[in-house]
């Protein structure tokens, strides 16, 4: 044990301080490697955060600004028909003012020569409706969807986006 004490005493003397335990010094290369790796990890994390957060903001800006498509409208002649009402002596009439929404102005010249076919499809369908078929918003929604389907069938290959009601009168 005395040999161990002498060896310990020799190390403290080499350190230059008597009575203080020997301190291990880290090599400068190890400190430099640690600092460089810290900077790489921190820089990579910051870069990734900036890239993805910037991408999200850019996507949110794209989603926030909707793409406005230029649409065109074609007014149809007023439609007035009497509704089917079996078992009743009283006549019920339906008057509609309709506009067709088309994707762009170039479709309108394709539709105009086919308007007699469109009006015929409207007349034959509307004559079979009963006043109860038009009650409530659900009835009008079904009417709008059916008229849209019939117009698209009549003007094929051209297409419309929707049938829009400008005026509806049931009397």
Number of helices: 5
- The structural domain count equals 2
Number of strands: 4
Tell me the β content. 15-25%
Given the helix and strand composition, which structural class is it? alpha+beta
The largest sheet, given as strand count, sense and whether it forms a barrel, is: 4 strands, antiparallel
Q: So, CATH architecture of the largest domain?
A: 2-Layer Sandwich
SSE order, as H and E?
HHEEEHHHE
Helix content: 40-55%
Task: Please identify the oligomeric state.
Answer: single chain
| Morphology call | rod-shaped
Task: Set down the secondary structure blueprint.
Layout: H1 2-15, H2 28-64, E1 72-75, E2 79-82, E3 93-102, H3 108-111, H4 115-126, H5 136-154, E4 162-170
Antiparallel strand pairs: 1-3, 2-3, 3-4
Helix pairs in contact: 4-5
Short synopsis of the structure:
With about 170 residues, the protein is α+β, with helices and mostly antiparallel strands. The protein has helices at about 1-15, 30-65, 110, 115-125, 135-155, and strands at about 70-75, 80, 95-100, 160-170. α4 runs antiparallel to α5.
Structure, explained:
Strands 1, 2, 3 and 4 form a 4-stranded antiparallel sheet that branches. The protein is an alpha+beta fold. It has 5 helices and 4 strands. The termini are far apart. The protein folds into 2 domains: 2-64, no CATH class; 72-170, Tetrahydropterin Synthase, Chain A, CATH 3.30.479. The longest helix has 37 residues, at 28-64.
């Amino acid at each position: 044990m005395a040999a161990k004490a002498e060896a310990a005493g020799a190390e403290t003397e080499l350190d230059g301080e008597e009575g203080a335990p020997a301190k291990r010094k880290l090599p400068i290369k190890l400190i430099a490697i640690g600092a460089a790796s810290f900077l790489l990890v921190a820089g990579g994390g910051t870069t990734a955060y900036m890239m993805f957060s910037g991408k999200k903001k850019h996507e949110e800006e794209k989603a926030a600004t909707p793409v406005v498509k230029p649409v065109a409208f074609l007014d149809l002649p007023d439609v007035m028909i009497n509704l089917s009402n079996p078992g009743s002596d009283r006549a019920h009439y339906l008057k509609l003012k309709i506009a067709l929404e088309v994707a762009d102005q170039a479709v309108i010249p394709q539709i105009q020569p086919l308007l007699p076919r469109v009006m015929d499809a409207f007349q034959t369908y509307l004559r079979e409706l009963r006043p109860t078929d038009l009650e409530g918003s659900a009835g009008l929604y079904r009417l709008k969807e059916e008229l849209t389907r019939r117009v698209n069938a009549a003007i094929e290959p051209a297409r419309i986006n929707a049938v829009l009601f400008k005026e509806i009168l049931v009397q």
